[in-house]
Amino acid sequence: MAMMRINVGPLHPSTHGVLRLVVDVDGDTIMNVEPHIGFLHRGVEKLCETRMYMQNPSYFEKLDYIAPMSWQELYVASVEQAMGVQVKEAAQYARVILLEFQRIANHLLWTGTMANDIGQMFTIFMWCFRERDKVLKLLEDVTGGRMFYLNMRLGGIQRPLPPDFKDRAYALADYLEKKVREYPDVLDANSVFMERMRGVGAISKEDAINYGVTGPVLRAAGVEEDVRRSSPYYVYDKMDFRIPTGRNGDCYDRYRVRYEEMLQSIRIIRQALDTLPDGDMVGAPIKLIGPPAKPDIVVARRELPKGEGLIYMVPDKQRPYRISLRAPGFVNLAALPKMAVGAKFADLFAIFGSLDIIFGETDR
Amino acid sequence: MKARGFNYLVKITAVDYTSYVELVYILYNLSTKAQEIVKVKLQPNGMEVETVMPIFSAADWYERELSEMFGIRIKGRNARRLLLEEWDGVDAPLMKSFVWGTDYKRQS
Fold first, then answer.
1. Residue A212: left (phi > 0), alpha (psi -120 to 50), or beta?
2. Residue A292 pLDDT > 70
3. What distance in Å separates residue A149's CA from the closest CA in chain B?
4. B57 and chain A: CB distance < 8 Å anywhere?
5. Is residue B69 part of a domain?
6. Contact in structure between B83 and B60 (CB atoms under 8 Å)
7. How near does any CA of chain A get to the CA of B89, in Å?
8. Nearest residue on chain A to B64, judged by CA atoms?
9. For residue A206, what is the nearest residue in chain B, using CA coordinates?
């Protein structure tokens, strides 16, 4: 049979962002995939060079609008590094708690939409969104924003945690653990879900490293790499948690890794709440960087929910001279052809969905 | 570098210091968890550099992004389209000579 070229998009297969895929198929088998990105390009790196330090965090929130706090925190951390600011101890715990809640919210949304994408319609989607909403409600009560938080300040957070925060966070952690543990009963027991996930879009350990994929996609391929462990920031070195890894690097392992990560995040939240010290956690607004503290370059790394995020910044006094972002979605999408070639056309969307790509950070 | 265990390419980026352009390769060693930054200085007229694609497949999109955003010619890459859709590659927007906010007219 002759080769056929199919154009997918420009549209997101699950409509959160815009992507165009040009797919060459032979019958039902994918021979080549060429992702075309850039529909959401707004030149964030150039834009940041023209804005003062304190004007930039809101751009970073829009990079990943599913988990905005993580990118915002990474930016503020890189400015803190440039200014030589120490984060207050209580604020370190508070940041860890909020970031882990953010990670759970991200993985919940992924689980729901992933199941939706491959035809396990609505039950699990509704469950995930029910749980995610409770997380967002807590974050809203802490920060004042439901979707976009802008709550990181130099050396701390915007305002102290509310007085009933501890009780509510404990209760929410218990609730989430109970509910998240129910998901495999619906997903792993569903033969349609398993058939469409297991053995689909596998990438070997060597290829995963060579293509530079990060986050759950890398860990599903069996590489134990997590920035929270390999270069711990804040109080992650005091926390006891496991880095879940997969064996086959297929879609099912990616789901499993994210599921385990949610449970590990709950563990981290509980430990951080147990040891949360009293004390001031309010930070200062971001100001100019004075000459004595200004280093030549700043490299900040964080484990974002979607993978490793990195900021390479050349700081200047008023505004960054150059700021360069390493977005996990960008590298994971670049490896899509490697995973999809040889698979069936219908599996393309399962593979794409399993990468957890967000176009705000991919196109920048 | 790869022989020394730096088997993971984190990022390739560039900084325009107006008198020269600095290429930055951020490498990572997955077993020792060490990070290393390699910098290459380029003269701003006629910038070109060898591709690292044969060593790291991860370089693919980064190198395309570099030629698009900085106008750096990557030797050893066949002339594929640039990275972002609908981008003609005439200007180099991340160079400091491209002033943000000026009226940009597409040459077509």
1. left
2. no
3. 28
4. yes
5. yes
6. no
7. 13
8. A334
9. B7
Cβ-defined contact of B8 to A41 (cutoff 8 Å): no
**Could you tell me which chain B residue has the CA closest to the CA of A326?**
B11
* Prediction pTM value: 0.88
What is the pLDDT, as a whole number, of residue B74?
A: 82
Residue type, A167: D
Q: Please, which residues have CB within 8 angstroms of residue A186's CB and are 6 or more apart in sequence?
A: A120, A123, A124, A127
The ranges assigned to domains in chain A are: 43-342
Q: How far is CA A269 from CA A50, A256, A264, in A?
A: 37, 20, 9
What's the CATH number where B35 sits?
Answer: 3.30.460.80
As given in the structure block, the two tokens for residue A264 are 């590990």
Regions of chain B where pLDDT drops below 50 = 107-108
Contacts of B7 in chain A (CB under 8 A): 209-210
Domain with B71, as residue range(s), is: 2-75
Share of chain A above pLDDT 90, in %: 27
Q: Which of A264, A256, A254 is nearest to A218 (CA)?
A: A254
Chain B partners within 8 Å of A39 (Cβ): 85
Our count of domains for chain B comes to 1
What topology is assigned to A43-342 in CATH? Cytochrome-c3 Hydrogenase; chain B (1.10.645)
